[in-house]
Fold this sequence. Notes:
Adenoviral Proteinase, Chain; elongated; hydrolase; alpha/beta; 10% strand; Papain-like_cys_pep_sf; two-stranded antiparallel sheet; 9 strands; protease
Amino acid sequence: MEMNGQAPQHIVMHPLLEPPKEVLAQILPQKSLSVLDFLSFKLPAIMIMTKHVTVKAFFSKDQPSLGNAQLIQDSPIPSMHILAVLSKSTSEAIENGAFSLKCAHLTVVMLHHKHLKPWIQAEQNLERRTQLWKNEGGEEARTLVMKIYNALTCISWSGTLDGFAVAEPVVELAVYATDDWLSDVHENQMLDLLQRRIQHQPQSQKIEIENIYFYGFLKKAYEVHSSGEYKGRYFVCARETGDAMASGFGSCIGFLVNINENHWVAVVIDFKSSTIFYGDSIYMKPPTGFLTVLHWWTHHHTGQHFEEKSLIITHQKDSFSCGLLSFNALAHHVLPSEYPLIMASQVRIDRLKVMLDVIDRHLN
Length: 364
């Protein structure tokens, strides 16, 4: 657990002083709990030590007298520092005749689990949006929120998400229900979902979707191409992809790129028409040298000069939707019937749709 921003610590108690397992199961959240059950779970509180208390004061030679799990759960616990000191002192205390632990009743603050805050924020956003869409008559949106709530009763709050190239923590799901900027975790999840849809489209088998790190490999390859390093093992993925596209085994490749660590753009390279498509939701031109890298790579594998065109993309009207809109532009280009262009006013709804898709993939 993470307390008041402190780094998580592993506390080990002497077996003779540990609470029974059935009590621990009641006072601490089990990993099998669903997200909604986790949100409603009452975590213990932390004592704020207002005066100095010696370690010896926490040990007692009396037999344990409190066996009610609810009372234990309602009682404040010591700070992480005190727990660490107690952990180191238990063996000596038992040798001196200690049979139980006791603690003082002091002013308390709530214990915050590191995974609780993002889910609380997500739940609050869902509640606000449900009320807003209720007032606006958005039946589809309200139905979507209900599907999200139903899905959250089916997944554990702990562990990782199954069905993706990288097993990310389940708590990353919460971001989709907020206005937080989508990170590489979420962009790769969306790209993964798109690639799997393409695999189920026979007419789209020659379309390749890469993860968000692909452009970084191309940029590095361009920087060292004169040295011959591009032939090395480090660039095997970029090299084999280029060869496959040039030989006709593939026709189109798409990926997302992070610009200046704060903005997502989309790139589609069509080898059949020798065209590089670039999409930016704020309609900015590519950074200096960006297209140079792509032209070098395509020419290296095909010997052809590629035309530059703009990728059709929804104009961004907020500070957080570039990740969703760039992905949508890419997906719309390769599978227009399944991915219509998102309206700028619908970005929050579509984030929830992605969240539901990720949960479905995890469950299935």
